[in-house]
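Deliverable D4.2, example record:
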Amino acid sequence: MAKKSALTWWTPISNKTTLRVGRLVKAHGLKGAFKLELYTDSPDVRFAPGAVLDLQVPDSSPWFGKTVTVKELRYYNQAPVLFLEDVEDRNLAETLIKAILLVNADTEVLPEEPDAWYDHQLVGVSVERDGLKVGKVARVEHMPAQDLLVISTPKGDVMLPFVKALVPSVDLEKGVVTITPPGGLFEEIVDDDDSAAEDSAAGDSSVE
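Output generated by the structure prediction step:
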């Protein structure tokens, strides 16, 4: 499995955080089903029958402040389709389009999958290349093809595919994400840091 975060963080509440696990993209068929955009590496767990999900919707929505219960998660042509209890027709499903599905999780517990992390556990972690710090994790972007690690550097944000070949190590205990980016990324940042260190050393030296 690609080294990537499992979920996206939302507003922390004490030692809990609200995590985005999916988005209802559009109605599917006539029986109230939805095409689902996944934000989790554990869809069969997060969308198990009976799972209760909070909703992120505008306060003008009739669903504001309500929850939904999973009836079934199916796959059509490898695309996830979600059925919810008490949503039995397309007209009702249309009122939930674009809703974000949320769950509460412990902020200190890692996902069960190997090499997976919640986004909030990565944000702010130092990023190193060849033992030198190049920045820190700003956020994780969840794209259809793969996740992107957004790294904040002195030169601005840099996006790096969040895959094992380019992000071989994530050590949360040490607070370090190790990257092996392709040529052309981060070289200027490292060179600038080296030049600044040399200039500082030259400025500190004096001739008697």
